[in-house]
Design goal:
By secondary structure, this protein is of the alpha/beta class. It has 2 domains: 6-52; 59-310, 2-enoyl-CoA Hydratase, Chain A, domain 1 (Alpha-Beta Complex). It has 14 helices and 8 strands. The chain has helices spanning 9-24, 31-51, 55-62, 70-77, 119-124, 132-148, 165-169, 172-185, 200-204, 225-232, 239-246, 250-255, 274-293, 297-310, and strands at residues 79-83, 96-103, 106-113, 152-158, 190-199, 211-215, 219-221, 261-263. Strands 1, 2, 3, 4, 5, 6, 7 and 8 form an 8-stranded mixed β-sheet that branches. The radius of gyration is 22 Å and the shape is globular.
Length: 323
């Protein structure tokens, strides 16, 4: 069953009318003209709605329950996937799925966040919110990829790192910081694709790529709109206002040079055509990977560090003279 967002209902009503008329067209051929007019109307309406989306509406598309998950992209993008488990310290974290795979002619390490579909799987995957052992697993496999000269491909889709007491006791902040340190010094290419939500340090912990791309209807921010609204205005209902202030869409991020490119999606979101969306991701990775693999480890590291130093604005205050 198709699940609709509120702003999609006018489109659905026109499409529903088209389908009803198509069932009657054999008995009443004169309906062909009306169907054609309605199809044109639906097309114009769809283009108008998705061309003028607010940032909050893009947040809703990024979280759409039918949107493809990382596990879907594993099957659509890769061959011979072999999942690897555990952080060799505490346990395996199912909210981060990782392993070896083949991307076209390249053997790669793939790492991504998985939210789960139904209630049982969402609980098993902790709603895509990794524990520290998930980040330690990612770190372990990044270093393994470095050892064997394999490119690393990461896929971001998380509300954020899990903030529970146990996670904090086991070093959540330290695990994220360790991953940032490792990624800045990794001697192998690292490409990141944001496929849904990119929430806070929980996303950044696997996203310091040489190239960072975002699907068109995704978000990437230091905090969720709801979290921002509850802090600034003590009211989660102000989330749409917070989304506008956060400037968290792919278009915003690209304009600020935080991401390196926007990957197209079908009108209305990736869930409308996952296979087509996967082909766009594949094309982007295919274009970037050979260029990065041609660089020496020292060049990779130098360019990666320079990339992240350039993000943001800062001023240097001269030290007062001692005289």
């Amino acid at each position: 069953m198709r699940r609709l967002l509120d702003f999609e209902r006018p489109i659905y009503e026109v499409e529903k009318k088209i389908n009803e008329l198509k069932e009657k067209v054999k008995e009443s051929p004169e309906l062909e003209r009306e169907i054609k007019e309605l199809e044109e109307r639906a097309k114009r309406l769809k283009e108008k709605v998705y061309k003028n989306l607010t940032r909050w509406q893009i947040v809703q598309i990024a979280r759409h329950p039918d949107r493809p998950h990382f596990i879907d992209y594993i099957h659509l993008l890769f061959k011979d996937f072999i999942e690897l488990h555990g952080d060799r310290n505490f346990r395996d974290d199912p909210s981060i799925v990782a392993g070896l795979a083949t991307f076209e002619n390249h053997r790669v390490m793939v790492i991504g966040q998985e939210k789960g579909r139904d209630t049982k799987e969402k609980i098993y995957r902790n709603f895509g919110m990794p524990h520290p052992e998930g980040y330690r697993k990612a770190k372990r496999l990044m270093l393994m990829a470095e050892k064997f000269g394999l490119p690393v491909l990461t896929f971001v889709d998380t509300p954020g790192a899990y903030p529970g007491v146990g996670a904090e006791e086991r070093g959540q902040a330290f695990a994220i910081a360790e991953n940032l340190k490792v990624m800045l010094s990794l001697k192998t290419p690292l490409i990141t694709v944001i496929i849904g939500e990119g929430g806070s340090g929980g996303a950044l912990a696997i996203a310091l790529g040489d190239r960072v791309y975002a699907l068109k209807y995704t978000i990437y921010s230091v905090i969720s709109p709801e979290g921002c609204a509850s802090i600034l205005w003590r009211d989660g209902k102000e989330a749409p206002r917070a989304a506008e202030a956060l400037k968290l869409t792919a278009q915003d991020l690209y304009s600020f040079d935080i991401i390196d490119g926007i990957i197209e999606e079908p009108l209305g979101g990736a869930h409308n055509d996952p296979e087509w969306t996967a082909e766009q991701i594949k094309r982007q990775i295919r274009n970037a990977l050979p260029e990065l693999m041609a660089l020496s480890p020292d060049e990779l590291i130098a360019r990666r560090r320079e990339k992240y130093v350039r993000i943001g604005r800062y001023i240097e205050i001269p030290q007062p003279s001692s005289s």
